[in-house]
Design brief:
Strand content: 15-25%
Radius of gyration: 30 Å
Number of domains: 3
Order of helices and strands: HHHHHHHHEEEEEEEE
Largest sheet: 4 strands, antiparallel
Strand order of the largest sheet: 4-1-6-7
Helix content: 40-55%
Length: 255
């Protein structure tokens, strides 16, 4: 029979027992309470914690016992964190950038057109022109208005396209990924945390992450994270991976 066709709880319990370990010994080694490990082995998946913690428990327990993590997570009853929200945020970001570009270009066009009109008015006021010169000036202004109108129409047409092509959207996402990353720190207990740039030691965050809350930090270069109670801290990386620091005071480096 395929091993992964068995219930998850039985797989965890059997693997632990083969290693001759008690729940308390495993709990101390991977910093997850024994009651949660027991709930996993007993197929009791409704213990009162956010899904991100519960999935992290499954991953950590599987890694510690030497089980196939990928296969375990496919059978995990806790749904994975959806990426639709982050994808929507990226689309909103692209839309905002396009809108800002449109506003800047329109402002430039309006300024240029306003300057032309102001210059024409000053020219009319400064000297008396004969009828031929006046007609020429009207023609220039009319041509300028026409050109500006066409330019505004082209800008609005380009910016108002409903969707970016897949290749352009992918390029925009790649550029954003290179420019900026983020980590999310979640606390199951009060933890004092400091995040700083590894290169210039500039502080990106320093303070208390309280129990049940999260703290998002964005960065562009490798960072260092220091904490006083690592057992209460779970760190979600930009690629979706989770870090569970050792208990007590310590620090980690993230590229």
């Amino acid at each position: 029979m395929d091993r992964m066709s068995e219930k998850l709880g039985s797989l965890f319990a059997e693997a632990r027992q083969k290693k001759g370990l008690s729940l308390d010994e495993v709990a101390e080694a991977i910093h997850i309470k024994a009651e949660y490990l027991e709930a996993i082995e007993n197929e009791q998946f409704d213990f009162n914690l956010p899904d991100i913690y519960r999935r992290g428990f499954y991953k950590s327990y599987a890694d510690f016992l030497g089980l196939d993590r990928e296969a375990i997570m496919l059978k995990c009853p806790i749904k994975s964190f959806e990426t639709l929200e982050s994808s929507q945020k990226r689309r909103d970001m692209v839309s905002q950038v396009a809108k800002k570009t449109q506003e800047v270009n329109l402002d430039q066009v309006k300024t240029s057109f306003s300057d032309d009109i102001d210059g024409a008015q000053e020219d009319f006021q400064s000297r008396t022109m004969d009828s031929i010169t006046a007609i020429k000036m009207i023609g220039v202004i009319g041509g300028t208005v026409l050109l500006v109108s066409l330019l505004i129409y082209l800008i609005i047409s380009i910016v108002s396209r409903p969707n970016l092509s897949p290749s352009k959207a992918t390029q925009q996402e790649n550029i954003s990924a290179i420019v900026e990353k983020k980590i999310t720190m979640r606390a199951s207990g009060d933890v004092k945390v400091m995040v700083r740039s590894e290169e210039d030691k500039a502080k990106l965050f320093s303070g208390m992450v309280q129990k049940g809350t999260e703290q998002i930090v964005t960065y562009r270069a490798p960072i260092q994270i220091f904490f006083d109670r690592g057992e209460f801290l779970v760190i979600e990386l930009a690629n979706g991976e989770f870090l569970h620091p050792d208990s007590g005071r310590g620090g980690i480096q993230i590229k």
